[in-house]
Amino acid sequence: MSTTRPDAPPGGRPRLMLPALREVYEAYVRAAGELPGLPDALRAEVWTSAQLGTLEAAAPNPAARRAALADLITMLRSAGTPAARLFLRALAAIGPAEARPAAARAARSATRTPDDEPPWARRLGQVTPGQVWLVQEGPLDGDRLICEFRYTPDGSALHALAVRLGHGDVPSEVVIVGDVPALMAAARQAMQAELCVVQPYDPAAVGPRLRAALDNADQPLPQECYPALALARHRAALLPGETSPAQ
């Protein structure tokens, strides 16, 4: 993502790659006002992922998505509000990898005071993976992969990425689960009723599989997958194992 163009001409508004979308970006800047009031880093990441999902779902191709994301970063930097800076911090933590450096630079350039950010801001994106589970409900339902994560360094806020993969490992469901014990209890209850099979899965095997499925830009996804997609990609990138270039 290029960041060499000036943010704005002298005395003018920020220069944009897609100026026809200026009002859309302004709506995102206004929406950022919701971020400081969220209770924790996970809710902030889910919120940020939903904004990115809307942007990606509307983009006609990856190049347009990258341009729109670059413009959004420019507009947030130009806004200069604490909420806009917090949005940039979240983008730098869990946004698309190619956009994170630009978002981080834009966040650092903003003037701030100690009271500008909620205490959870420093935890954005700071998670470590845990147990991975494979849930199989039947040959026609595909595999559901449940990957647990906790925030570092204290190992708090257990949550999970749950992805259902259909034929050809195309995602049909991508969600972030906050109540993991309840999710696993329901899965085990279904297993006892012989409705599914639940078993541990090697994280080094599921990592490459999930990354290949979530990063396949040539495969359109169901609309309901997009809100959690950015956060799912971030979490999948933290799982061990190497993804083959052929995938």
Low-pLDDT regions: 1-6
The tally of helices reads 8
Task: Compute the number of structural domains.
Answer: 2
Topology as a string of helices (H) and strands (E): HHHHHEEEEHEHH
Organism: Actinomadura miaoliensis
Region (Disordered): 104-123
Protein name: Translation initiation factor IF-2
Describe this protein's structure.
With 247 residues, this protein is α+β, with helices and mostly antiparallel strands. Helix content is 42%, strand content 16%. Strands 4-3-2-1-5 form a five-stranded antiparallel β-sheet, sandwiched between helices. Helix 7 packs antiparallel against helix 8. The longest helix has 18 residues, at 41-58. The protein is globular and about 60 Å long. The model is unreliable at 1-6 (pLDDT under 50).
Task: Summarize, please.
The protein has 247 residues and is of the alpha+beta class. The chain has eight helices and five strands, in the order αααααββββαβαα.
